[in-house]
Amino acid sequence: MICEHAGTIIPRRLGDLGLAAAEMHRHIAHDIGAEGVARQLADLIDAPLFLQRYSRLVIDCNRPFDVSDCIPEMSDSTTVLGNLRLSEQERRQRYVEIHEPFHRQVALLLDRRAAERFLTILVAVHSFTPRLRGGPDRPWQLGVLSNRDRSFAERFLTVFQGRNPTILSAHNEPYRVDDKGDYTVPIHGEQRGLQHLLLEIRNDLISDSEGQRVWAKLIADTLIEALAKGAGND
């Protein structure tokens, strides 16, 4: 289990990134509710969990270094003043101090599990806002994302839709996984040949502890059934 956008911490040397305090409670700073869901889900299925405590506005740990929104200057119509006109050295420092250590620990665990021949399935937990500023409504309640290997994502989605026919869910909504917009799935999932998926839960559904509890249980039950169906097919 991985939750790359769990926190809102800003290193002291960066001050407040030039942002009003209210901005750090918005979806631009972290994935609202994702940490709570991820923690409860990890407990329910007894899985190791990696949480990133630093705000995605400091550095987005689900982006490659060479894309502009790895350290965004603008996010959903908000200018991040502390990210403007950064030097290559300043960008690299954030990457080396925050991004690399996080993914190094993920890689070490995956290496160890591979050496011990454990079956491993990678699940990344995210949330999305119901509507970007100036954008259309996003009606989906759950998005199940993948790219080159759709097999586990499609199996999960089939099971989820069968169990929860009244919940609006879809594959690759409201985002799609690719090599520029994502890091965790391409690097830790696809390159290793692991079964994987990225979950996007609409954040108004998980903004409180009860919503997080409900969605953690929905996802845990689906994961368990999807794993069982996969074992039956192998």
Structural descriptors:
234 residues, alpha/beta, Aminopeptidase, two-stranded parallel sheet
Write up what this structure looks like.
The protein has one domain: Zn-dependent exopeptidases (Aminopeptidase, 3-Layer(aba) Sandwich), CATH 3.40.630.40. Helices cover 36% and strands 13% of the residues. It is built from five helices and eight strands, in the order E-H-E-E-E-H-E-E-H-E-H-E-H. A four-stranded mixed sheet has the order 5-8-6-7, with helices on both faces. A two-stranded parallel ribbon has the order 1-2. A two-stranded antiparallel ribbon has the order 3-4. Strand 6, helix 3 and strand 7 form a beta-alpha-beta unit. Helix 1 packs across helix 5 and helix 3 crosses helix 5. The radius of gyration is 17 Å and the shape is globular. The two termini are 23 Å apart.
Summarize the entry for a quick read.
By secondary structure, the protein is α/β, with parallel strands linked by helices.
Structural class: alpha/beta
Q: Count the domains.
A: 1
CATH superfamily: Zn-dependent exopeptidases
Overall shape: it is globular
Radius of gyration: 17 Å
Percent helix, as a range, is 25-40%
Under CATH at level 1, the class stands as Alpha Beta
The second-level CATH architecture is: 3-Layer(aba) Sandwich
Low-confidence stretches: none
Q: Approximately how much beta-strand content do the residues carry?
A: 5-15%
The overall pLDDT, averaged over residues, is 97
What is the number of helices? 5
Cα distance spanning the termini: 23 Å
Number of strands: 8
| Sheet having the most strands | 4 strands, mixed
What order do the helices and strands follow?
Answer: EHEEEHEEHEHEH
